[in-house]
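SAMPLE LOG
Freezer: B-3
Tube label: C17
Construct: single chain, 491 aa
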Amino acid sequence: MVKVSRREFLKTGAATLASFTIAPSSILGKSFGHISPSDKMNIAAIGVGGIGHSNINAVKDTENLVALCDVDWNYAKGVFDEFPNAKKYWDYRKMLDEMGKSIDGVMIATADHTHAIITADAMTMGKHVYCQKPLTHSVYESRLLTKLAKSTGVVTQMGNQGASGEGTDLVCEWIWNGEIGDVVKVECATDRPIWPQGLNEPEKEERIPKTLNWDLFTGPAKLNPYNSIYHPWNWRGWWDYGTGALGDMACHILHQPFKALKLGYPTKVEASSTLLLNACAPQAQHVKMIFPARENMPKVSMPEVEVHWYDGGLLPERPKGFPEGKPLMPANGGLTIFHGTKDTLVCSCYGENPFLLSGRVPNAPKVCRRVTTSHEMDWVRACKEDPEYRVPVKSDFSEAGPLNEMVVMGVLAVRLQGLNKTLEWDGENMRFTNIGENETLKTCIKDGFTIHNGHPSFNKTWTEPINAQEFAAELIKHHYRAGWALPDMPR
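STRUCTURE (predicted):
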């Protein structure tokens, strides 16, 4: 019999095996067409100095790390030293151009504003992608990656690792089994930010370190003068690069409501916050979203539901029956409260430690697939399976894309709060329907609060009024800096 390597089999598909013999599923296994575990993936990692290192650690023992890319070679030095045989790059575009033929998958853990363009470029080259949360910086980018995942057929996974945890599975199974009745309200909160926010834009331009390529870090965003307050890590609080506490934590905390309640596009959103500055996310926020009724499930209805988000120390009221003396905010920094017509379900970040306020412990059927490896290794597993028989990962872009639209919709509501209205959203067409053509908006450039000789002065600096429709449109779909562009939206 002619021997066919496992890698060749992945390319030729099930038809090749069928030409040899017809084998029962008990021989082929559940994942018919699965590559041998000994056949390693060649993985490139982009953004390796922070959470990217954690992602690498999850796959390094079984897969090949062939390329490492980072815009800050000082921040990435430890990882570079750990993998001396991996080729090193500043610019991911050069890496993909030179090594594209030898790379199977790409892991992306850069700043939020560059997630979409890097991920889209890798997907259009046919590379499997693992991208950190939040998936993108804007609604349009999320929609694009959702459609690219479908059109390219590559394996995709967003880095909200709680999606692969049993807590998320239990929350879904309990709700779908009708254990708490119909859910009409959900409240979510985080103790973030734990990095500086609510800051004035820095006025001092600093010298760019020799180990940092500031132009590449900026990527598609506007090129600001360099200041060490932006990088590393603190970028997440600045609107040009990050999405604040919402982007950092909501993909972990809103995922359980999104999945369990089968949410789609919200129809109404509104927000409030501490002082909203033009360049930096506020210290604390509250967002409210209304989702229309969805198709009922066999054991539970899906009526209209309102979802609340709190951060920066803000919390919902303690629900009736919540144990006295028990902190409302769990130690892992995330809280979700599902208010049902029969009971109340509470869980922490990632859906962990779910419980009912009634004290009852549900015995619902286990209908969700359990992941017994890591979130990253489940992605590797799917990459090695034949596409026709592939078992989907837990946060592929068909789910992560729409979830991320929900997350960045919260950012939109915060940044448009100066319109002083409940915003009405047409999700299908990605536009607000109740912002008038001539409506204007001002944003605060600088908080000029000072104390002189014991007397306070409140001297804020504001932008001139700008067209609200145009401002909203830019937040929904960014105009990239010259030299950077996304692929076209698939039909």
